[in-house]
């Protein structure tokens, strides 16, 4: 009597009739589990599957591997889904849908909140995360819930670019506190979150506890600490160190000047000055000048206009330098004149 055919994959064999029970069922061992051909088996142990083709299924809610609506789905009813290499867990997707790579625990300031946690290689020379740019040079793109691109990190052959793509500032934090930001107008602000005094670079700090701004000459040589340039990139002033003194310089090269002659009427201008003694409204008594009165004699030594205000009606204060070159020239000229007159009197 011909055997009853059955099919596993592409193999067709015959089972002797004596091996079948009354229900024409027979036991087949898969792994360590005996499966009856007429039964439904939901659990198999120690099974190695090669070139598996999952041909049907629905999106699961319990532990399973199925072909869902279009893709293979690996599901857990409540625990973690893990992957292992070299007999050690390499990656897991936990029940909160967070991905952990090379670690089973979260790290960071806000423990447990980050979607992706990667444990770096101890003592390794490589980084924790390696990114390869796409054709547009983008490595990281951050979006909001509406998929609007908010910030990017991109890399090209000429520049690494970190920035925001919306009307948001770029902030830099330490110890979970903002320390510095670049606002949407390109102003660099340190120790403050708002531009003040129309500054392009603003630093806000307590001057009583440390220097607000320091420049260190680490090489010990001489040269310029700070250079001031005009729109043509020509130096118009500088702060420099000559080995002994710090110098505050205004460009004064002879090649920039058409000499008219010696200073005249120095005494008249000096006599026109109105030195005063005054109390600062912030505290302290000082001898000095009023800027708008000083400007009547030496206009190039004063900046700003008298009683000026900004767009919000706040005062824009005048500033002056009483030791400017035009003042010093008059003082020197008058001292020289006085010396000559004294010498003439002494010679009589």
Verbal overview:
There is one protein chain. This protein has a four-stranded mixed sheet with strand order 7-8-9-10, with no helix packed on it. It has a four-stranded mixed sheet with strand order 14-15-16-17, with no helix packed on it. It has a three-stranded antiparallel sheet with strand order 11-12-13, with no helix packed on it. It has six domains: 1-40, no CATH class; 53-120, no CATH class; 132-168, no CATH class; 170-205, no CATH class; 215-256, no CATH class; 266-347, no CATH class. A hairpin with a 5-residue loop joins β18 and β19. The protein has three helices and 24 strands. The longest helix is centred in the last third of the chain and has 23 residues, at 325-347. With 348 residues, it is mainly beta. It has helices at 266-272, 291-297, 325-347, and strands at 4-8, 11-15, 27-30, 33-36, 64-67, 72-75, 81-85, 88-93, 99-101, 116-118, 138-143, 149-155, 160-164, 170-174, 177-182, 188-190, 201-203, 223-229, 235-241, 246-250, 276-279, 285-288, 302-303, 319-320. 11% of the residues lie in helices and 31% in strands.
Give a nutshell description of this structure.
The protein has 348 residues and is mostly beta strands. The chain is built from three helices and 24 strands. Strand 12 (149-155) and strand 13 (160-164) form a beta hairpin.
Helix and strand layout, with pairings?
Elements: E1 4-8, E2 11-15, E3 27-30, E4 33-36, E5 64-67, E6 72-75, E7 81-85, E8 88-93, E9 99-101, E10 116-118, E11 138-143, E12 149-155, E13 160-164, E14 170-174, E15 177-182, E16 188-190, E17 201-203, E18 223-229, E19 235-241, E20 246-250, H1 266-272, E21 276-279, E22 285-288, H2 291-297, E23 302-303, E24 319-320, H3 325-347
Parallel strand pairs: 9-10, 16-17
Antiparallel strand pairs: 1-2, 3-4, 5-6, 7-8, 8-9, 11-12, 12-13, 14-15, 15-16, 18-19, 19-20, 21-22, 23-24
